Amino acid sequence: MSLQLQAGSVTFENVTKNYGAVTAIDDVSFSIEPGHLVTLLGPSGCGKTTTLRMIAGLEHASSGRILIGGKDVTSLPATDRDVSMVFQSYALFPHMTVGENVAYGLSVSGLKTSEATERAEEGLALVGLAGYASRLPSELSGGQQQRVAVARALVLEPEVLLLDEPLSNLDAKLRRKVREEIRDLQQNLGLTAVYVTHDQEEALAVSDRIIVMNRSVIAQEGTPRELYEAPASAFIADFIGDANLVTGEVINITQETAKIRIENVEYDLPSRGMGNGTTQIAVRPDSILLEPASTNQIGIKGNITHSTYLGNQIHYSVDSPLGELFVVDYRIENAIKAGSDISMTFATRGMALIAP
Amino acid sequence: MRTSFFPWLIMGWIGFAILPWYALEDGFWAFEWLIDGYPFDSDYAPALLQIFQDKEWLLPLLFPLLFPLCVFNRVKSDPKYASTLVISGGFGLAYILGQGFSVGISGWEFSTLESLFGPLETRQFGMGYGALLTSGAFLILLTTGLAAAGNLRGDVFVTSAIGIVVALVATFVFLPVGKILVSAFINDEGLYALSTFTNNFFTKKIWGIDCLSTSVSCGVGLNSFFLAILTATSTTLLGLGFALVATRTDFRWKKSLRVLTILPIITPPFVIGLALILLLGRSGTITQFVADLLNIEAGRWLYGLPGIWLAQTLSFTPIAFLVLIGVVEGVSPSMEEASQTLGASRWHTFKQVSLPLMRPGIANAFLIGFIESMADFGNPMVLGGNYDVLSTEIFFAIVGAQNDQSMAAVLAITLLMFTLSAFFAQRIWLGKKSYTTVAGKADSGIHAGMNPLLRRICMCVTIPWALFTIVIYGTVLFGGFVVNWGRNNSFTLQHYAEGFGIGWSEGNLVWEGAAWDSFWTTITISAIAAPLTAALGLLTAYLLVRQKFGGKNIFEFGTMLSFAIPGTVIGVSYILAFNVPPFELTGTAAILVLCFMFRNMPVGVRGGIAAMSQLDKSLDEASLTLGANSFTTLRKVILPLLRPAIVAALVYSFVRAITSVSAVIFLVSADHNMATSYIIGLVENGEYGIAIAYSSVLIFVMLSAILIVQKVIGERKLRRTNRLTSQSDTTKSSTNSAPMEKQA
What we know:
The complex is a heterodimer of chains A (356) and B (744). By secondary structure, chain A is α+β, with helices and mostly antiparallel strands. Chain A is 24% helix and 37% strand. The longest helix of chain A is centred in the middle third of the chain and has 18 residues, at 172-189. Chain A is elongated, with a radius of gyration of 25 Å. By secondary structure, chain B is an all-alpha fold. Chain B has a two-stranded antiparallel sheet with strand order 1-2. A two-stranded antiparallel ribbon of chain B has the order 3-4. A two-stranded antiparallel sheet of chain B has the order 5-6. In chain B, β5 and β6 (508-511) form a beta hairpin. Chain A binds chain B through residues 42-50, 56-58, 60, 75-79, 81, 83-85, 87-95, 104-105, 108-109, 136-138, 142, 145, 152-153, 156, 162, 165, 168-169, 171, 196, 198, and chain B through 77, 150, 153-155, 616, 618-619, 621-630, 632, 636-637, 640-641, 720, 722-724, 726-727, 730-731, 733-734, 737-738, 740-744.
């Protein structure tokens, strides 16, 4: 398949979108480099789908500028933008065959039928569906329909490919496979792709960069690793992987390292520009180590209120001076009964200072 | 940009410089003008030449036709491009309309203009080919400009579609109704006076209450109101009874009860009244039988309130049934089951749970019955006797010896007041209250059985009523085959021969029957109106469902308004509005077609809205992001998926055009007589046999149209649902698998 892709960048400059009195997007700016896969991640109602639809031209910004491939497209309708989109419901036209669906964009832009059909065949081959052209979408499985939707978007050789929760209609086992396929295709073709999801694991798995949105603004932007290891806020820490928020005190800062004290225990953590004083620390549930109270006297004392067996792991709820903590423990053999007194220590690899 | 305003400008010039500007007396489709003095004859000259004759007021139109050339080579995003087109189109349109309404057949229309410019020697006629084409071109230039200015995401097609629908609704709904309001204030000397209205409005004729104390009849306004309350009450109660029997009992023929709902669609409005005369009139079968049996004098009780009430109840009960069956089924069984598990008896459950949940639906059925009764023209016409109602009085004010237009206007306003109040009540009061408990998800469970006493009452009322309805339709069917119903009951084909005889003369087929003329006119006009109605309705539905724009609520209200305007009011208003320039349409077939289009448009709109709401919006969006514009999307994606809705809209507009009588009776002419008004004429002459025969032919034609189409759509629908169910299944499973994320 000879796709003549001209991967483009996407830039938002102070974009705001209002629906009447409601602000869906509030003064958002970001930039996506050509050839990258960037995920818009956030809880429902955070504005990520609105952002995607504004890139597509299905919604128009109330103020600010949107650039695609360096060109200002702010006032351009969807029809005239060089982007294509894979919809959550796939939106395959039920009255057209798979081939007609894939050729649709080519033929409405004036390509001859024979040529459009030929290129649709190539597009289908690209997603591994050669020979399916004459079927109806309803005769395909969910995963196949999804690939048809991808092929239909790709044959137009868009500057940017938009994917709106492309996996949400697939069952859990298929999701991992399809997301790998999408990632491979994107990397092999050097596509710029913008991917919307509310599933943080999916976002971590496919993205070059992640833009986390919350309440109409960008909460944090970075590589998957940066977001997980250095969350900028309590919201990010909790949204990307679970986190317990505990209060501690920075007692000393030496260059990049901060010495903090939580209850009676001291830890060294990357300082991330924090000053002395009270601070919040995010602690990953699997970085809390529990021991029966008697064996370890240094840790923080607590009491297990719930213990839930989940096969390969055990979830605990712990009542402690730091508040109610959520703990994941993979040491099934050391299961501790609910009601037991324990003492806890934190592993520093799973801890991060949170700006107040 | 591929789209440009240039073709529209050329269209404007063709209308201005080439085609005859004014309407031709010979009619729209006559082309004698081509060889008869065109282009210099002042009747046929295009506007460009009219300027040099005596219509110099057409000169300013050159400005909007030349001005757009300034931006010929500018790009669409240039603000000058947009503003130039908006100015040209807006000015051109406003000027054509302004001068059209200002200069009429007898010079200036407004005395202020006359005193300003002095009396006018010349006059002008209605808009013709040229004026219509140029106005259309200006409208599109205006909307293209508005789109270029960034309205509606710069979508020229959507902007133009809205512009066209607004222009049409304004011209053919608001203009006529406005005209009625105005003419109610014009006195005999043609001057505006509030007293004209108040004198005509606050009269005994409309509001008199003498019937309460004396034998003199009440005012027509009160008569209509009283009748409408009675009819609405009886149809709602019967409809509820039928709905309960059809959904909550094990009655053997409950499925066939639903056939009842198709009856009002295919029954011309006066047919029930006609059949009642044959059965219960003075020489009716039942009357004679009872009179012989009891040896009493046959009475004329049927002619008047009891008869109209009976006929309307028979006519409109199926409509109430149709509304209420949805309401009764809409009450979630789990609510009733919950009530029963909480220990309530069946009667208690019905009274405390089911009935309150149905209340908005019942109110809705009541209001619909009220509006239908108010608007009904056929039954009071046939059975009225001394009981005058508004809809018929309007007719007699216009066609009778009095020909009192301002009286007709006042009566029409009174009628409009009643129906609009009901319409508003329905929208405001019921719009917010929805007790529909069925939510997308299938709600398993069984409706609670009915309390035995209630069940017995329902059965005892509805079954005889259903039988009575069957007898009525049987009468219609057989009435045409009887020499003189009630007097000479021998079989004959004479009525059919008289109406629909076909003969051979010199080897040619001759349509000898007296009814053929109006029959073919009816079929032709209905067939022309149907696709136009469906197209207009579906386009409006598309704009309402799929597009976001300012003033959408007003737009929707305007398009649905004609639903609440009784046919008689429409008829009168069309006569008032389209008898004079700039729109001279009376006496043409066009006015009938237009009347049907705008009267039946709400049916198409509702059907279209219902069908389009079923289509996933992301299908449109997918098409748009794939580079198709909104027109291509409509044509290639939406319309093919809406085919069943399109066919249904076509059939309904066709059938409704055939059965329409109230508006039509004002608008027919010798050249274009319609079946219904022809039958009314027969009834007035007492020729019941042929009238009944003609009615059954109409019913037969409509029934076959509906059945054929239902068969065709039915099969299509099956095939289509197969395809679509899998589609919607995946959509549904998506909402299940991602319950927290519906619209981020």
